[in-house]
Each structure stands twice: as structure tokens, then as C-alpha cells.
Amino acid sequence: MNKKKMIRLTALVGVATATGVVAEANQAHAATTTTTETTNQTTNASVESTQAAVDAAQSTFDTAQTSVDSAQANVTSASNNVTSASAALSSAIANKEAATSENIASATSAVSSQAVVVASASQAVSEQAGVVSAAASVQASAQAEATSASASLSSSSANVASATSALSAAEAALTSDQSTAANNLSAAESAASSASAAVSSDQAAVNNAQAAVASAQAIVDAVAEVQSSDVINMLVAYITALKNYLANPSSANAAALQEVAKGADYVKELQQKFKSDASLDVVVDPSDPTVQEALSVYAVNLINHLRNQYGLTTAFGASANANVAAIDFVKKYYDDEDWNIFGTTGSDGKGHNKNGLDAYADQLNTSIAEDAGSGLTTWVNGKATMATTTLHNLLYAVYSDIATMLFDDGGTNNWSHAQSIFEDGTILGTDGFNNVYLGVAFDKYGYAHYELYNATEGNHLGNNAYSLDVQTAAQALLTNAQASLASAKASLQRMTTNLMVAKAAVVAAQNQLAALENSSANDLVAVTKARTQLASAETSYQTALATYKQKEEALKKAGDNLAAAQASLEAAQATLATAKAKLAELEETVANLTNADQLLAAAQAAYEQAVANLTTATGNLGAAQVDLAKAESQLALAEDTAEQAKVRAAIAAQVDQQLNGSTANDRQSAGQDATSLKTNGRALTATVATASAAKQKQGANQGRLPQTGNDDQEASTMALVGLGMLGLTTGLYGYKKKITE
Fold this sequence. Notes:
The chain is about 70% helix and about 5% strand. By secondary structure, the protein is mostly helical. It has a four-stranded mixed β-sheet, with helices on both faces. Strands 3-4 form a two-stranded antiparallel sheet. Strands 7-8 form a two-stranded antiparallel sheet. The N and C termini lie close together (about 5 Å).
């Protein structure tokens, strides 16, 4: 509900009112026949009477407020109706303007045309409904046949299950003992087969271990001797000429170096110094870690011997990590990419895979240099294959490659291989080779790759370094191979014993099965019969299954046809509904144009009525607001009267209390000087006569005031009346009243 607030500032109580209260008090004091109870009853009755008037005025005000709210709602509604009627009138005017004979004829023609469309659409719906009905009939028939086929399939399946169960029971009876015996035999034969396989495997392991021992022994017997004898000693003149050339690669220094080196003839002379030992003709895998260790140590010792002759004190190193990196690099950038460095003739190859070197250097975060040699293609007996190569082939390939690197390769290489061997801290003009470790690997074409890495703490290429004492490394290889052989022989012995036990179990199982072969003739007949019945049941099941699938397919097709027909029906119905809606719209247009005069008159009348209703509602609202203002004024007056009655009653009660129960001290206290009181910012000062002033006027007043008490009591009583009047004035000033609903 709307809240209304009425604020009112009351006037100060008039002098006449205050005087009347004092007179009443004096009369109550002077007239001994009038009791204080009578005075209180009179003032209380006045309070109740004025409060009843307030309640009645409040009720009248609430009723008036309700009337105003209702009238306001009516005005709002009437205003909305005027707006709506105005819009309808505008539409009717536009319709009247459009209601020409030509427009009416055109709209009527459109209705006729649309009626034809509706009739056609209705016919299409009827026809499609027939199609749906026929499709539903076919679908129902297909459903019945599919249900029957499903029942037949279930029955056939049950027959198969029953026949299978009967066969299982017959076979269980036939094979209860035989099955156990056969399983025992099968398990025994399986165990014997596994034991035999284990023996064969262990025998192969022993053979491999013996071959490994033989290979390790060959290395122990021959590598150290080869390492000590297969050294390359350079002439002093060659060393001097090479130093001059590397310091200044002029044509004159190149010719002098070529003259001292003697070219290819000297290479052949060095190659012929390789010690060929039959003990080295052991087939090995070039990527085997032990072979890798032997090759890299062999190559590093050859190079360090040359560097020592050259006058260098820094030596190359060999490590397992460098070898692993070399194998990984060659596989990734030569084998996997089919990169043939020399080709088939030595002159049609791709050369070094420089992109691969750059990528691998980035991967390891280090500097890499690569020397490559013809490897297994250069040894004296012809090209070797990776599958049949021997330790002799590999060692000779390394020896021959390093010997060849000491001389001019021809072409663009010139003396670059020799330069890579004899430089210190740099290789081929590239810095960053302060701690060189060599890795050796062979690609799938048989060519040898010598990867020179600069090892750091970060790339760990120097970790797991090999001892360059080949005798110690070879002896460790032999010790490991011998330990592996001993373990393989022990395992072979265990597997041989297991095989003997397994063969005995096979014989026992065979004897048990033979003893049971003649005890199951009747069970065999039952099994044969059960198998025949199962075959028949399975045939029936397959027939029923084929029929079921056929009927299910027919049902699916009928369902699809029904769904398609229903979709077509729904489309036809939607088309009909659209056509009908269009027809209704056109008919409404014709009706509006035909009845334009009547519609306009009705709209004009409705608009005028709405305006009249708004005028009436506005007048009613004004009258209700006038009534509300009157009720508000009457309520304020009633509240003022009630408040004054309450104050009058309060003063009477104080006077009565003072007359009946005050002491001499109370009367003296009541005669003090007037005080200044403030209410809502306005000072009200009242002066009350003191006790001494009252005594001075006693003679003048004795003739008209009753002598019912002493002088002090009279002064105190008047003081109390004065203070009560001040309290009344202070309490009323600024009084506010709120009326809400």
C-alpha cells in the first residue's frame, strides 16, 4: 500500500487552557467537599472520549485513502484503454482508406485462389493418410512374422543347448578317466618339450659362451702383440715437411711434403707391415661393446703414437660413451638415411653428412670432427660383409685407414686427415677440441667412421673411459666370457636333469592312457548319438536363424516405410495448416475491407467511450482526494484534542499528589527560581514566585484565597502548577504525528 505521512506542529497551549487547569487545581484544594477521585475520573473520561474521536478520524482517513488509491487505479486503467482505443481507431481509419472496390476485389480473388490451395492440400493429406494406414498394416504383419520367427529361433536355440548339454555329459562320461590320463600325458609331453627346448637353448648358450671365450682368448693372445707390433713410424723428414706444410700450405711446401711421403707406394708399404695372425680370424659383431672397446683403444693408441712422434704431448682418449655416440650418429645419419659416403666405386658417394654433423653437434652441445675411411672394402682379401667380418678384418681396416690418412687424399681433401690427427686444440681450423675422445663405428656399407668429440663435464662423452692398456682390457673380456661359459654349463646340466625327469613322466602317462582305452565302448556309442542329435539341432537352429534374420529385415523395412509415410503425412498436414492459416488471414482481410465502415464506427465509439471513462475516473479521483484532505484535517484536530486531554489529566494527577502527600521541604523546593527550558531549539522561560514573595502578598490575597493550609504550602502548590504548565508547553511544541496505511 502507498504510505502517507502527515507532519503537524502544534501551537502552544493557550493561556485560557492553562488558567483553567490552575483553577481546577485551586478548586480541588479549596473545596473540601470535592474529592480528588472525582477530578481524576473527569479528566480520564475526557482522555477516553478524545481517543475514541481519534480512532474514528483515523478510520475515516484510512477509508478515504483507500478510495483515492482505487480511483487512481481506475484513472490508470482508463488511460490505458484510451491509448488502446486510439490505436484501434487509427487501424480502422487505415482499413477504411484501403477499402476500395479494387482492393476488395483483389482480396476476394486471393481468398478464392487460396481456397483452391487448401482443397488441394487437404486432398494430399487424405491420400497420405491412406498410405500411412497401408504401411501400418504391412508393419503390423511384419511384426507378427518377426515375433513368430523369434519364438522359433528361441526354441531352436534351446534345442541346441539341450543337445550340447547331452553331448557334454556323454563326453564327460567317456573321457572322465581318459581325459585325465590324456591331460597328464599332454602335460608331461609339454614339460618334456619345454625341458628339451631349455636344453637346446642352454646348449646354444654354452656354444655361444664357448665361442665368446674363444674370441676373448684370441683377443688376449693377439691384440696386445698386434698393438705393440702394428705401430706406424714416420720418417723425420716427413714430420718436418708436414709441419712446414701445415704451418704454410704453399705449393712449394705441398710438393716437398708429397716428395717425402712417396704417395700411395708408401701407404702400401705401411699396410704390408700389419701383422696378420690366424688367432684374429674370429667372427665378431662390430657393434659389440667389447669389440668396440678393442677397436677404439687400438685406433687411439695408433694415433697417440703418431702424435708423440710429431712432438705433441696431449693425447686422444677412448670411452664407452664416445663409442655409443659414434654408433648412434652413424645409424641415424648414414644407415637410416641411406647415406653412402663413398658410393660403389669410391668416387660416386655423397661424402660427409655435414647437416647430420651440425645437428648432432647441437644435440650433444659440443664440437665434432669426422674422419672416414674405406674400412672393410680395402683389406687384401677383398670386400668383407658386416655379417661375416672377423676381428682381423676390423683391426686391419682401422690400421689401413689411419696409415692412409697420413698422405694426400687428392681432390679437395688434400692433407685434411693428417691435419685432424696432428692439430692440438683445434681441428681443421675449428677451435674447441681441447679434450678429444675418439669413437669408432662402421656403417651398413662397410665404411669406417672415426668421430672426434670434444668431451666436457656437460656432455659426459669422456665418462666410462677405457684403459689404453689393451692387455688389461683383453684379459677382463676373457674373464667375463669364462664366467658366462661356466654359468651356461651349470644351467645346461640342470636342464638335462629336468629333461630326464620329464621323459619318465611321459612314459608313465602313456601307460595310464593305454590301460583305459578298452573301458569306454558304451560311452562311445552315447557320445556318437549325442553328436548326431546336436548336429540336427544346430541345422534347425541355422534354418531358424536365417528365417529370423529375414523377418527382422522385413520388419525393419516395413518400419522404415511406415516412418517415411508418417513423415510425408506430417509434411502434408503442415502444408495444409499453413494454407488454412493463409486462407483465414485472407478472409479476415476481405471481412475487414468489406465492413470497413462498421469497424470504423465501432472503433470511433469505443474511443469516445474510453475518453469519457477517463474523464469520469479523473473526476472521481479529484473528489476522493478532497475527501482524503478533509479526513486528514479532522484526524489532526482529533489528535490535538486527545493530546491536550492527556496533558490535562497528567497535571491533575500531579496536583492531587502534591495536595495529598507533599511535605514542607517539597513545597520549598517547588518555589525555586524559574529555569530556562529548550525544546526543538526554542527557549521557554517561566517565572514562578518564590516563597518570600508569596509572604509579601499574603495580606492582599487572604481576602479571596481559602485558608486551608499554611503559606508555604500555598506557594508550593502554585509552583507545581506553573511547572506543570511549562511541561505541557514543552511537550507539545514540535510534536509530530505519522499516519501510515
